[in-house]
Design goal:
This protein has 226 residues and is an alpha+beta fold. 44% of the residues lie in helices and 13% in strands. The strands form 2 sheets. The protein has a 4-stranded antiparallel beta sheet. A 3-stranded antiparallel beta sheet has the order 1-3-2, covered by helices on one side. The radius of gyration is 29 Å and the shape is globular.
Length: 226
């Protein structure tokens, strides 16, 4: 799910808290040795220039090291989470933006939540196991999106696993999905709430929303808890 700009009326959410340089000169009073001294000096200058160039290159590489390390760490994290067998990671084709919620104060609300649309139903089941039940009734799914999902999100906030802004962003994502379902989108819900696992909403065999239980999903800005 990409950035979602929602234009609703005022919604009250009861959430609280919230890197040496060296020189050597040689000289001789003998004119016979001048040519040799000149040649030696030339060679020394050449080596010094090469050494300086080499140092610059090494410095340049060192400057890039933090970035390379960061990229390597991210790839390593993705590999670890995928190998974990349960954690869902955001779609790599989407911008890796931090989950956030903003309100202009006049009813205009902007929210960004992670996109997990690269996963299909089979992959979800391989990670979470068989669901307790599968719901396809649109009306029932919309009710769950705006009621029980909100409660599950609030519970994650109360446990200190979501910031207030993150909780609000996920809540508005469910509202947005509910509106889309009411207009034309057909949804399928894999229910895992009685297994203490996240519920998963799919459309056309692609994940549209996952209950933000942080033990099962990764996203930018996630709170690290023990």
């Amino acid at each position: 799910m990409k950035k979602t700009v929602l234009f609703y009326g005022v919604l009250v959410l009861l959430l609280g808290g919230c890197a040496a340089k060296s020189e050597s000169d040689s000289a001789s009073s003998s004119s016979v040795k001048e040519a040799s001294v000149s040649s030696t000096t030339s060679e020394s200058s050449t080596k010094e220039a090469e050494s300086t160039t080499s140092t610059k290159k090494r410095k340049s590489k060192k400057v890039k090291t933090p970035s390379s390390t960061t990229e390597s760490s991210k790839k390593e994290t993705v590999k670890q989470t995928e190998a974990n067998g349960q954690l869902f990671v955001p779609n790599p084709e989407e911008d890796d933006e931090e989950v956030y919620y903003e309100s202009s104060g006049d009813g205009n609300i902007s929210a960004f939540v992670p996109d997990y649309s690269q996963y299909d139903k089979e992959q979800v089941i391989s990670k979470l196991g068989e669901p307790s039940q599968i719901i396809t009734d649109g009306a029932v799914i919309r009710d769950r999106l705006e009621e029980s999902e909100w409660q599950l999100i609030k519970e994650q906030f109360d446990l200190g696993k979501l910031t207030e802004g993150q909780a609000k962003a996920f809540m508005f994502a469910t509202k947005d999905l509910s509106l889309a379902a009411a207009i034309s989108m057909e949804l399928e819900l894999l229910v895992y709430d009685d297994q203490s696992k996240p519920n998963v909403y799919l459309s056309e065999n692609s994940v549209k929303f996952i209950t933000p239980m942080t033990d099962y999903i990764e996203f930018t800005g996630k709170i690290n808890t023990i």
